[in-house]
Amino acid sequence: MGTGRTDNKAPITRPKKSTSERTRRVNTHKKRLSALGISDEALVHMNPKEMRELLRKPALLKTA
């Protein structure tokens, strides 16, 4: 059995996410959350997934 195209595919249809873009996106999320009133100390302990969950409904953050 040889190695076919399935094992040797390059990301042609969709490009890979680069580290610099991911870092830029996380920094943007931090700035948005701090503008909404989240403390910087709380942001340090958050992971990117938690930040995205909070940014999905920013109107709830302003009331809380």
Structure in words:
The model has no long low-confidence stretch (mean pLDDT 86). This protein has 4 helices and no strands. Helix content is 58%, strand content 0%. With 64 residues, the chain is mainly alpha-helical. 2% of the residues are buried.
Task: Summarize this structure as a short list of keywords or feature phrases.
64 residues, mainly alpha, 4 helices, 58% helix
Point out poorly predicted stretches: none
Summed up, the helix count is 4
Q: Estimate the mean pLDDT confidence.
A: 86
Radius of gyration: 18 Å
Counting helices, strands and paired strands, the structural category is mainly alpha
Q: How do the SSEs run, as a string of H and E?
A: HHHH
Strand content: under 5%
Question: What's the main sheet like?
Answer: none
What general form does the structure show?
elongated
Portion in helices: 55-70%
- Say how many strands there are: 0
Number of domains: 1
Distance between the termini: 60 Å
Short synopsis of the structure:
The chain is mostly helical. The chain contains four helices and no strands. The N and C termini lie far apart (60 Å).
Set down the secondary structure blueprint.
Layout: H1 19-35, H2 40-44, H3 48-56, H4 58-63
Helix pairs in contact: 1-3
